[in-house]
Write a structure and sequence with these properties.
- By secondary structure, the chain is α+β, with helices and mostly antiparallel strands.
- It has helices at residues 15-27, 67-77, 95-104, and strands at residues 5-12, 33-46, 49-63, 86-89.
- Strand 2 and strand 3 form a beta hairpin.
- The relative contact order is 0.31.
Length: 109
Amino acid sequence: MSTNTLLAFCSAPDITSAERIAENLVEQRIAACVSNIPSVSSVYQWQGKIEHSQEVLMLIKLPASSYTRLQQAILALHPYETPEIIAVDIKTGLPGYLQWVQQCTNSST
């Protein structure tokens, strides 16, 4: 059963970028909460080379209806040419928390 709530993942090159993006997402009521996890070690292929980076992983909690706005905001604010933006449906969770996510992102509140 879907809760109409998503958990989105986005990596940023540093805490300054992650905090700037997180604050914008919460201020614009796109996301209820962004948890920044520093010092994530990423290994990936970019333009034909294997890259190793220390990044900040953003865990973004938002209603499914806000995904398009989330993607647009991250693309506008993110320093990467092609940032990671992955969202998964939250199938279950504490009902009070999931209600809070919806309330925080309701622009009429």
